Amino acid sequence: MVRYAVRRDELWTWYWLAWKRTLWLYHVAIIAMVMTTFVLMEVGGAPGVAVVAGGFTSAALVGAMIMYPQLRYTPQERTLRFDEAGISYERGKQSGRLSWSRIRSVARAGDGITVTGRGQSAFIIPGRAFENTAVRDEALSTIAALQRGAD
User: Where are the transmembrane segments (predicted)?
Assistant: First the structure.
């Protein structure tokens, strides 16, 4: 069992690490699609206007993707339990269960652990949730083994 509350700075750090790994591809794809669509549809009547409009629209969409985790942020304490069937979680009055088939990865991220779902949602467990790095590393090993055992 792990009990913790995520801080905003830890959420930003997680997003930055996720962006460096894969999220930047989504942002580039969005920019390319919007710019191409605006130019091909001649938004604004001229290619230059279409590029400017596409640039602003792309920036707004990418900005919304970046802000979404921050807007959904809740400082409530979370409790996670891991077993052979998956993860049980509690956050305030919310609780639920995820099977390991819905988990894409378990990895060390910064000084903590990130359990990422198939839809890019994640449990961000900060390093301070563990007594020390040895306990964190043991937890990471156990959680990863449980996930691998379910495949």
Answer: 23-41, 47-68
Domain count, the chain: 2
pLDDT > 90 fraction of the chain, expressed in percent and rounded:
66
The packing angle between helices 47-72 and 24-40, to 10°, is 150
pLDDT attached to residue 151: 66
Whether 149 shows a pLDDT value over 90: the answer reads: no
How far, in Å, CA of 134 to CA of 116, rounded?
22
* Same domain, yes or no: 57 and 97: no
Choosing from 56, 72, 88, the residue where a domain stops is 72
Question: Do residues 17 and 45 both lie within one domain?
Answer: yes
Torsion of CA 76, 14, 35, 55, to 10 degrees: 80
- Residue 2 main-chain phi, psi, to 5 deg: -130, 135
Would you give the distance in Å from CA 21 to the centre of its chain? 11
- CA pair distance 126, 85, nearest whole angstrom: 23
**96 has which bridge partners?**
89
Question: Tokens standing for 63?
Answer: 């900005």
Q: What is the DSSP letter of 20?
A: I
